[in-house]
Design goal:
Shape: globular
Order of helices and strands: EEHHEHHE
Number of domains: 1
Largest sheet: 4 strands, antiparallel
Number of strands: 4
Strand order of the largest sheet: 3-2-1-4
Structural class: alpha+beta
Strand content: 5-15%
Length: 144
């Protein structure tokens, strides 16, 4: 009998001292090839932002990377309990995610990358991510 592979899902909750406390999210795992692309895009966006001089080429690169990261986040998102300021549920869709404020979305993507990349609470109490997730296999991260 062969082993049947079943992709993982990750439940994410935030510690009481985290600004995202109360938000619950569930993600499906990301394939290695997709994750490597995500890491490259995040690195490119960060490089463009940190360069100090935003040329049209760097602005275009940052926009492309941000768009791809947002889409990858939304496609990995299975469900969440996020609501707007009038308590209306925000659907877990690409379209709805693209309507969020950029600074909030950046924070969500940062936490999501920690989870799908294998960072977890088990890294130790010195970790300040505030994210609690299902156990995952650690994946070394290096600048590309």
């Amino acid at each position: 009998m062969a082993y049947k592979y079943k992709p993982k899902t990750y439940a994410v909750e935030f510690d009481t001292d985290d600004e995202l406390h109360g938000l619950h999210m569930r993600f499906k795992s990301v394939k290695v090839n997709d994750f490597l692309g995500i890491v490259r895009l995040a690195s490119q966006a960060q490089t463009a932002i940190e360069s100090g001089e935003m040329t049209p080429e760097l602005a275009s690169l940052a926009a492309e990377a941000t768009d791809a990261l947002t889409e990858a986040f939304a496609k990995s998102l299975i469900e969440w309990d996020l609501t707007d300021d009038e308590d209306n549920p925000i659907p877990a869709t690409v379209e709805a995610v693209r309507e969020l404020d950029q600074d909030f979305m950046s924070l969500l993507v940062e936490h999501w990358m920690q989870v799908v990349g294998g960072a977890s609470k088990s890294l130790g109490k010195g970790s300040n991510s505030g994210v609690t997730s299902a156990p995952a296999v650690p994946m070394p991260m290096e600048a590309l």
